[in-house]
Amino acid sequence: MDFNPSAPTVMHIDINSCFATIEQQANPLLRGLPIAVVAYDSPRGVILAASIEAKRFGVKTGMRLMDGRQLVPELTVVLPDPDKYRFVHKKLNKLLSKFCSEIYPKSIDEFVLDFQSHRVESLPAQAGSMQHVARDIKRRIEEEIGEWITVSIGISTNRQLAKVAAGMVKPDGLVEINGSNFRQVYKSLKLTDMHGINTRYAVRLNAVGIHTVPEFYESTLSNIEAAFRSVNAFYWYLRLRGYEVDGIEFGRKSFGNSYSIPQNLSLVRELSPILAKLVNKTATRLRKAKYAAYGVHVAVSFKGGGFWHHGERLPQPVFYTSDIFKAAYAVLKRVRINRPVHTLSVSCYDLVEKPPLQLSMFENEEKRQFLAQAMDRVNNRFGSFVLMTGNMLAAKDAVKDRIAFGQGGIS
């Protein structure tokens, strides 16, 4: 099978050093400086994003702050401001909708645009039209969102190759992979540059004689099957030839939040306010997406090692904060805690579209629903936790707002 002869119609857009450049856009005094957005400003705090300037010195996402400062002693530390990042995400989503109706946010800083079934007036008919649109998008971002925020854009005939192309030149890149240049591009890539090929899969491919991306492309399907031993071999055979196998948008499977606890807490009553705040954040996102959940899951990891988790399936779907908290608290009470808790997590699963109002003999369900909606509107307008339940007061500011890496982060 030869490479897909169709014109590229898929565009992958990735905000460069997302959190860091948004902070630099918001505060001109940070521009041009090596900065790190960190979860906590303690030495072991994890770097969530490094600015382009910091990356030049080797500072990376996931690195500890103390290690980043070893590389860059003058590294400027910034605590995250999720509302800023969501604001930019929504503004960019709105801008992109003027170019294409088929937009798929993949995370807080990544979008996929599919022009295959969409035509816009600004899309010219001549060769290179997708690149023309990409340059126009870059110009509009600079004018309407911020001159310090840049994006890398990849273009190809499927999502996999568009994402690979977006990662090839950073910052501010624009790369197209098509039937004319794919062989040349493949020569410049490592196996692990292909999204989804980690070190373990690379070792499997090496074992059957595949050490480079060109060898991956030229290999027979049976040889790739010997490495993967699953239908994934056929998918990779198609991906490398520019055909789409990743275009299915699956529904949301769960909503959840977690918190790493800096204090030494080991009692359920001490963890209860934190659990309440995590539940509140999860329930708000659940309602905003118009879901209810049959299942509530709680997970606990301990300082020094060890992990416990349990999920409880409920007879009726829940979406009120109080109902989810009751279920989560009942699960939490089952764990035997004999040492400080490192991370507490709560999630809702077995999702269904929010069912119609169920009237109860014992509670005014309509009033509860109106109250939940009113609290959500107030908190959405004035900030999270302006209104909160009484059992959250003891948590105070313990649980900070965080951006998840994934679609959960854009709620």
Automatic annotation (TrEMBL):
GO cellular component, one term: cytosol
CDD domains referenced in this protein's UniProt entry, alphabetically: PolY_Pol_IV_kappa
GO molecular function: damaged DNA binding; DNA-directed DNA polymerase activity
GO biological process: DNA repair; error-prone translesion synthesis; SOS response
UniProt cross-references to InterPro entries, sorted A to Z: DNA/RNA_pol_sf (IPR043502), DNA_pol_Y-fam_lit_finger_sf (IPR036775), DNA_pol_Y-fam_little_finger (IPR017961), DNA_polymerase-Y (IPR050116), DNApol_IV (IPR022880), Rev_trsase/Diguanyl_cyclase (IPR043128), UmuC (IPR001126)
Pfam families for the chain: IMS, IMS_C
Gene3D superfamilies in the cross-refs: 3.30.70.270, 3.40.1170.60, DNA polymerase, Y-family, little finger domain
Domain UmuC: start-end pairs: 10-198
Family per record: Belongs to the DNA polymerase type-Y family.
Annotated protein name in UniProt: UmuC domain-containing protein
Organism in which the protein naturally occurs: Candidatus Woesebacteria bacterium RIFCSPHIGHO2_01_FULL_44_21
